[in-house]
Amino acid sequence: MTDTTKTTISIDDVYYVAGLSKIAVSEEEATKLQAELDAILGYVQQLNELDTTGIKPTYQVTGLTNVDRDDVIIDYGVDQQALLQNAPHVQDNQIKVPKVL
Amino acid sequence: MSNTIHELQTDLAAGRVTATKLVEDALARLEEKQATHNISLATARDRALERARAIDEARAAGKPMGRLAGIPFIAKDNFLTFGTTTTAAAKILEGFEAPYQATSIEKLEAEGAIMIAKANLDAFAHGSSTENSYYGPTKNAVDPTRVPGGSSGGSATAVALDIVPFALGSDTGGSIRQPASLSGVLGVKPTYGLVSRYGVIAMASSTDTIGAFARTADDLALVMDVMAGKDERDSTTLPDVSTSLLTDKNQPQRLKIGIVKEYMTDAVQPEVRAAVQKRVDDLRALGHDIEEVSLPSLDLALAIYYIIIPAEISSNLSRYDGIKYGLSAEQAKALDEVYGLTRDQGFMAENKRRILIGTYVLSSGYYDAYYRKAQTARTILINEFKKTFEHYDMLIGPVSPTTAFKLGENTSDPLKMYLADIMTVAVSLAGLPAVSVPSGEDKKGLPIGLQLIGKQRDDGLLFAVTKQLEGVK
What we know:
A: mainly alpha; flat; B: Amidase signature (AS) enzymes; 11-stranded mixed β-sheet; 11 strands
């Protein structure tokens, strides 16, 4: 058995992020994921050794910023029925969802 | 059989063949190889034949023909297309019919190209072997006991087996270049923003690119030239790309080329290193100057990649909720159950791993240590590339540390599979263009690819050098 005191991510963490991600993982899946995610996180932790003091993060690589357009409706010719036909449950041209509360 | 785009166009123009015949023949070849190689998830037979007949009639009537008129192709199944389903090889999108087409597909169709089928991939393009497909793996064109590479494995195999002259793929961290290398065909990942991603299922938006597989540099350049350009519907497309990508428009002078030291270590299969060294000789014989160059941060690229990309995946894949389209878990009663059960049943194990890693590195308390750290390390990597490109016109190295591995060889260890991307992810993080050029084979006869890496917007130069290398035997 893995010594859980030495892992980066615990089984509770797995259930926590699975909950945030809205994925209902089974107990068996969670156990497997815990070991796999721990190995991946262990690998990426090598970045901790890199000195990044004073360096800014990069989120966009070609230098474009704030690409905007006129605030007008553009008709892309997408048909309403074509959109609705993919929905699992439709009623009166609306997508039907189960009880929220 | 002679069947590059340029050869087929000559035959079509001379009336030796029709578009209808080309489409029928390509579909017949696909059907034959489907049983052994599992290349395609669906064909678009009716729509393809209808379009072929229309093009044949227009040609007979003397109407002007598009640059790809009558040429059949296959698109990875993460491109939204008419004519058949779009599933991303994921159960959660089983049966999905796209209400509109990707910009890249629209542009190819405007020039007369005909999509005949959708190619298999790792579900949502998460993988390096096409084994993460809900519909089973595609097989390597050269050795069907081995993987074709991934995630665009179906597209690579289709071109390698001469089913179509070109196929479309997407490359987020190597998903075109690596299967091109393992399958022995040309593949390009363009400069970030060169080709619109509108209508292609998003994976990681800061590195997703649209590219292609082909068998000649001229064909590859032509397809990319047709697809490139600003699109109002993808705000990351580059506004100022006006130069042609065609090989005859880009004549390389004497280039200064760096061979990347970090990509030629003992960890790389010796035959792969030898094949790259042979290409160094070829490039010298063509008049280029080559010397070794070191980019130390490359060793960290995979760690950076496997923080940033899962983070973006966790965000992009949040839209699959069992409500608007695709799978919806039938036993679910309340809304939260619909989300949870649908996503558990509809995603493959690798999709879940990436979503969970991404959610973890973005979650409160870990954001700075992982996500922000990785984006900062990315800056260091990009600056290193920029500095290197002040002195070099192009960089070269292998695409993949090994030739095609056996089916099942790496599936039990996700981290081991990630290492297949070790020499392709840095280019993606920096938004650079790169081409995988077939460059010999190993002792087993498995293909080896050379990676040509350019500065941003130097895609045309890479195609021209690819053409020069084609001339070397």
